[in-house]
Amino acid sequence: MRLEQLRIRGLRCLSDVAFALDPGINVFIGANGAGKSSVLEAAYLLSHAHSFRSGAKDALLQRGSSAMSVFAEVRHADLRTCRIGLGREGTRWEARVDSEIVTLGQLVSECAVVCFEPGSHALIAGTAEERRRYLDWGVFHVEHDFLSQWRRYQRALKQRNSLLRGTTTLTDELFAPWEAELAQSACLIDQQRQAYMDLLRPKLLASAAGLLPELGPLELRYRRGWSAEHDLIAQLQEHRGRDQARGHTTVGAHRADWTVAFENAPLREYLSRGQEKLTALACTLAQAELYAEHCGEWPIVCLDDLASELDQMHQTAVVKQLSAASAQVLLTGTEMPQAMQTIPSRVFHVEQGRLAPLL
């Protein structure tokens, strides 16, 4: 998969930039705050419909602007091309594929981007929500009906939470229909997640062994979000009173999580910040490799501020691995990384929201 053309309007400091990308490695260099990360953010938006940066969606808009858009021309491994876009005007978001208005799910299915950036350690040290996003993005691209099940689950969850906050009567007549739908879709989501983790595990073991050999073998642990001793319907019934006191549903697929443990550092709390970053990078590369195996093409790989996140040895190893896999890479830095000195690449200079290719 390749981004052949990318056009960005009104995204942070990028007023209106358009450029052609190399099918291999693309390097964006410039001072801090020049807009380098925003280029990667634009590509990521097309694949996830949200930014890899924390903060409100309003922060994406250029100051003083009420509209933004990202358009790209994508070429797949089978030579099929499509034009995709995501835009916002006021509070309304709109996705397009080949000029037709589509759902966000249809947009995301056309473009796959994985990203390693300064905040990626949150995948290991942060909240369960970060890890569920990572997991569900991967499942979405492997299981074709995952999105419909996830939407069905979210609808039932919203209805149950509304009942918990809006009534004092915890009767089966009110709750049973939504709990039955919640449990049925949760079980299907759980099966798909577990199947994905089984596929991911060997990729992650190999990736982590290459980046963190000193920590020994890795174990990937998955928790589905409710006790394995009883079915989910029974647990939802049992927890109605507690859930009502808290105002939300406390068991189910929306509470799932996964963690990693190394033989020589059994708890994630024992990892240094650098080890957390390398573990997150291992997860990113493993997911990209699994996507390539399943879909027949590598996703686009974004590496933000690589030189400040990894030492020279790890930079070189990662770039060489991706180059050998013929993945398209978007990489940023304040200067040309040493790891790129001997690898062919297209280089762009970014300054005050403007891009210029360097010969």
Summarize the structure in words.
The chain is an alpha/beta fold. It has 2 domains: 1-112 and 300-359, 3-Layer(aba) Sandwich (Rossmann fold), CATH 3.40.50.300; 124-298, Up-down Bundle (Glutathione S-transferase Yfyf (Class Pi), Chain A, domain 2). Helices cover 43% and strands 24% of the residues. It has 11 helices and 14 strands. The chain has helices at 36-48, 104-110, 122-125, 128-142, 146-166, 172-211, 232-238, 240-246, 273-295, 306-309, 312-324, and strands at 2-11, 14-20, 25-29, 67-75, 81-89, 92-97, 100-102, 113-116, 218-223, 257-262, 300-303, 329-333, 346-351, 354-358. Strands 2-1-4-5-6-7 form a 6-stranded antiparallel beta sheet, covered by helices on one side. A 6-stranded mixed beta sheet has the order 8-11-12-3-13-14, with helices on both faces. A two-stranded antiparallel sheet has the order 9-10. It is globular, with a radius of gyration of 22 Å. The mean pLDDT is 93.
Strand arrangement within the widest β-sheet reads 2-1-4-5-6-7
Q: How many β-strands, per DSSP? A: 14
Head-to-tail CA distance between termini: 25 Å
Which residues form runs of ≥5 with pLDDT under 50?
none
CATH top-level class of the largest domain? Mainly Alpha
- CATH fold field value of the largest domain: Glutathione S-transferase Yfyf (Class Pi), Chain A, domain 2
Query: What radius of gyration results from the CA coordinates?
Result: 22 Å
- Please give the CATH architecture of the largest domain: Up-down Bundle
Structural class: alpha/beta
